[in-house]
Automatic annotation (TrEMBL):
D-isomer specific 2-hydroxyacid dehydrogenase NAD-binding domain segment(s): 110-296
Lineage per the UniProt record: Bacteria, Bacillati, Actinomycetota, Actinomycetes, Kitasatosporales
Protein name as catalogued: 2-hydroxyacid dehydrogenase
Listed SUPFAM superfamilies: Formate/glycerate dehydrogenase catalytic domain-like, NAD(P)-binding Rossmann-fold domains
PANTHER family: 2-HYDROXYACID DEHYDROGENASE HOMOLOG 1-RELATED (PTHR43026:SF1)
Gene3D superfamilies reported in the protein's UniProt record: NAD(P)-binding Rossmann-like Domain
Transmembrane segments: none
Stated family: Belongs to the D-isomer specific 2-hydroxyacid dehydrogenase family.
Length: 335
């Protein structure tokens, strides 16, 4: 059987082909699944998609009409999938329930240190042989307070690194993680976390209840010199409200690996035509803001785990098994 994989990065392609070698043929496309590209999947029973795929109702209907019966998404998040429509169309949908939490946690800390110590600015100056220290004054992390919003596997990994820096830990989640309390984390209401933390890192999924979790009120409650990090989902942060606070001169640094309107932008090259997204265009102009391209997960270790899980999801589908990663349990048509 030949599997069609959308949104495959050049680094991923050899790993995907090797993982499926001897099992199934796989056709890798660098284009993302959208309403325009969905017809390409006609005749493919199984497709694989990336995190920024459009799997809303119209696209799912196109896929189903073309004969697709199984979608293997190569990501943990699935807020881009209309699961109700998928179930109505009898489409099997599976995701990757977990991969290396260290990949995201370490990248969040890379953003934190980069904005705190002004590393991008220093690197740009050095290329011009400008070695002044003006404007590069940072702060010690030791002794300051890290607020971790969401203390699952990734949040806990982030907290362990913060603990290694000698930081005080505040946490907020629907349930306490014993691994975090063992580090000395104190669980508090999110309003208190926002108000008392010197550094705030977001590690919760995007749900109706968490959309714009960091909105105008939360941003206003934060310290003027706080550092805000988001390596989870873009819509956790109200981007327009964040721009308003940054224009007022607030926050020591902001590190964003995700953006609420990133679909159609991230993982593409817009360097020639630019963007008509005024909010994103404004965000990247602030000297204390770093925006990266949803790459926190992008390590050899994590990508290999994601691909291995995707292969297992396909094998489970063909064997008629319901694996741990299944979101919509439609039955396969047969091997």
């Amino acid at each position: 059987m030949e599997i069609l994989a959308f949104g495959v990065q050049s680094d991923e392609k050899p790993l995907i082909e090797k993982a499926f070698q001897g099992r199934h043929e796989v056709r890798c496309l660098d284009v993302f699944l959208t309403a325009d590209t969905a017809p390409i999947a006609a005749g493919y029973e199984i497709i694989s998609t990336s995190v920024n795929a459009d799997l809303g109702g119209p696209v799912l209907q196109t896929l189903a009409a073309g004969g697709t019966q199984m979608i293997a998404q190569r990501s943990t998040g699935f807020n881009n999938i209309d699961l109700d429509v998928a179930e109505r169309l009898a489409l099997r949908v599976a995701r990757v329930s977990h991969y290396s939490p260290q990949s995201v946690a370490e990248f969040a800390w890379a953003l934190a240190l980069a904005v705190n110590r002004h590393i991008p600015r220093a690197a740009r100056r050095s290329r011009d042989f400008d070695f002044r220290l003006d404007g590069l004054l940072g702060r010690d992390m030791h002794g300051r307070t890290a607020g971790v919003v969401g203390t699952g596997k990734i949040g806990a990994a982030f907290a362990r690194i913060a603990h290694g820096f000698g930081m005080e830990l505040l946490g907020w989640d629907v349930a306490e993680n014993p691994a975090c309390t063992a580090l000395g984390m104190r669980y508090v209401e999110k309003d208190r976390l926002f108000a008392e933390s010197d550094l705030i890192s977001l590690h919760v999924p995007l749900l109706p209840s968490t959309r714009h979790l960091v909105g105008a009120a939360a941003l206003a409650a934060m310290k003027d010199d706080a550092i805000l990090l988001n390596t989870s989902r873009g819509a956790l942060v109200d981007s327009a409200a964040l721009v308003a606070e940054l224009r007022a001169g607030r926050f020591s640094g902001v590190g964003l690996d995700v953006y609420e309107a990133e679909a159609g932008l991230f993982y593409t090259d817009k360097s020639l035509q630019g963007t008509d997204d005024d909010t994103l265009a404004r965000l990247v102009t602030f000297p204390n803001v770093i925006v990266t391209s949803h790459q926190a997960y992008y390590t050899h270790d994590a990508v290999a785990q994601i691909i291995d899980a995707t292969v297992r999801n396909v094998d489970d589908y063909l064997a008629g098994r319901r694996g741990e990663n299944v979101l919509v349990p439609a039955a396969p048509s047969g091997p």
